[in-house]
Amino acid sequence: MSYRTHWQLDPQIDFLNHGSFGATPRVVTAAQRAFQDELEWDPIEFLAPERSLNSKLDHVRQIVSDLVGADPSDLAFVRNATEGVNAVLRSLPLDAGDEIMVTNHGYNACTNAADYVAKRSGATVRVAHIPFPLSGVDAVMDAVERELHGRTRLLLIDHVTSPTGVVFPIAPVIELAHQRGVRVLVDGAHGPGMVPLNLNTLDADYYTANHHKWLCGPKVSGLLWVAPQWHEEIRPTVISHAANRPQSDRSRFLAEFDWTGTFDPSPLLALPTAIDFLSSLFPAGMRGLMNANHAAAIAARNVLAETLEIDPPVPDAMLGSLVTVPLPAASSRSRDQWASLQQRLREHHRFELPVFPGFVAGTWFLRISLQAYNDIQQVERLAEVLRAELAS
């Protein structure tokens, strides 16, 4: 069954890049527009927290909390995962000589945030170098353990890595860090809607994620989960009224994040429609969708690996619905040649997907990410195009 008609993506482009900004189904954008119309009909009634906004946000918070296995009192809203990472990092008490640990698979924006915060406090950023291709879970655990030191205060680690599409063994990583007295901030930008989540049992200190990626919500919508013991410490990146105006129906933690100034709440309010829609696509609901997308990603990875004559770079169990493959013979081509490949794929062959440098000089990667609107025929066409392009 084809689900493409539910999205308004350009039919002339094979969109294999859901992992970057997602894509929002028609029914969800319609729901968002209805909320925007309601907002403009009566702005004060709609936006004033003490009138109807708080109850609307709490309704969404309960639905999202049920989905990710969280207590609603621990779940705040942010514009995106990068904002969530910044909120935690900027709230973290750091002294000169302390360390923030990241990995070489981390999202560049979040690593930049760690560098910024470290420089302001005299702390340093330490990088755990995890190989890619990746043999298995032990390679992740070993790389993290090697870099944990007595001055490490926080480990910032992806749940699903953006450049390489690896589902990290996040639970044992958290356990290892806690054994060393290190807090863990999980960048779960790709988590909700791709992999099962239970934040109450995961035992991270902080977990932030996007709603616009695998939950297909409108852009500018995400979550920040904070363990109860850190609520008083974590502040939003924008300080507003709730800093000195307590609200009787919620904690300062929730009140500050719920209102950072005038904003459009329609992306958040339309999120339940997105969750309902995705849950309706398969008999097993959201889990069925995740399983189908995972199976599609494995099949796509196998097609590309066979075409490129490479071994699968990551074990099946460490993939979700985001797949990265190394491009062969990368060292024999110039940076400009590889950089032009993405442009050719877009302009000449009508594919949307990223091609980017690898961790080691002279290596290049190609990434595809699949949602319900994709099919294997698109990947097979990509494989034939790559065969021709790489032979030329």
Automatic annotation (TrEMBL):
Its EC number is 5.1.1.17. It is an enzyme of class 5 (isomerase). Keywords: Isomerase, Pyridoxal phosphate. It comes from the Bacteria. It holds the Pfam family Aminotran_5. One of its GO terms (molecular function) is isopenicillin-N epimerase activity. Residues 51-382 form the Aminotransferase class V domain. InterPro entries: Aminotrans_V_dom, PyrdxlP-dep_Trfase, PyrdxlP-dep_Trfase_major, PyrdxlP-dep_Trfase_small. Gene3D superfamilies: Aspartate Aminotransferase, domain 1 (3.90.1150.10), Type I PLP-dependent aspartate aminotransferase-like (Major domain) (3.40.640.10). This is Isopenicillin N epimerase. The lineage of its organism: Bacteria, Pseudomonadati, Planctomycetota, Planctomycetia, Pirellulales.
